[in-house]
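Data follows
____________
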Amino acid sequence: MTLLLGSAIGNTIKNLDLKNFEVHLNGNLGAGKTTLVRGILQYLNWTDVVTSPSYTLCEEYEIDGRLLLHVDLYRIHSIEDVEVLNLDRMTAMQKIIFIEWPKNLQTDRNVDVIINLDHENQARHATLKCKDSNIESSIKTYYESK
């Protein structure tokens, strides 16, 4: 379920005409946040390893003119710690940001998609909330077609 949802989001990202796109990932430890990002990156033709940014705080990927930032804020406790990551840096590329543990941001951001991941009894569940109904429709259509 998680990798398929990642492919659906990757498909939507591939067709986006937005300069910046931000996804917030909520879920307990082991809920599948990094697995979801792995599915997105693989759909976008990333062939190398995708690791959790738990220790590095931010993993960066450049794929086909896109800068993708995968951020883990689990151990972040101050706004200064977030500012060091320079999430709002200017770039000529399309910038896609995935933020795990967004409640630790301690500031409001312009988020496009919020995904809540949950796992119970060996099953994973996801709910999406999208700012743009066309984006939500694109993700759901791809997901349901597979």
Remarks:
- The helical segments are 2-14, 33-43, 79-83, 133-145.
- The mean pLDDT is 92.
- The beta strands are 20-26, 58-63, 66-72, 94-100, 113-120, 123-130.
- The first strand starts at residue 20 and ends at 26.
